[in-house]
Amino acid sequence: MDQLNEIKELKNRIAVLEMEIKKTSVPIISSIVDDTILVPIVGYTGTERFELIRNQVLEYIGSHSNITAVIFDFTGSDLNGNNEHDYNTIAFDLKVLNDTLKLMDVRPISVGFNPNIVRRVIASGTHIEFESYINFRMALKVLLKENGDSTHD
């Protein structure tokens, strides 16, 4: 095989592996609450990542039409690594993510924001209406209570 073909095959292989890495970077986990999934957001979170998250979750919901709520856990995300200008984009990306799920009649719930992120996103001026809790445990408690399950108090 000549070098050009070998390079082309290697580039194709890299593209396939990059796609696999992207897909596995958005884990979707079943919850103890019926019809609810958890999506932990870990590492860098920019517009491209939000788009990937949105697409993966929509694809999952498309094949699991019983899903009524998605909990996004931002505890492990790196939103602090962004400069001031990027908080406008982050606020917009959060809004698009939530609005997309609402159009699918799925309840978006966010958990794990730290006070610095909250201040900066609110200061960005983007109007966001979404349900948020301090952590995953609190969100589960609310959902369990709404579903009439008091065994996990």
From TrEMBL:
What's the domain of life for this entry? Answer: Bacteria
Q: Which InterPro entries match?
A: STAS_dom_sf
Tell me the protein's name. STAS domain-containing protein
The protein's organism comes out as: Sporosarcina oncorhynchi
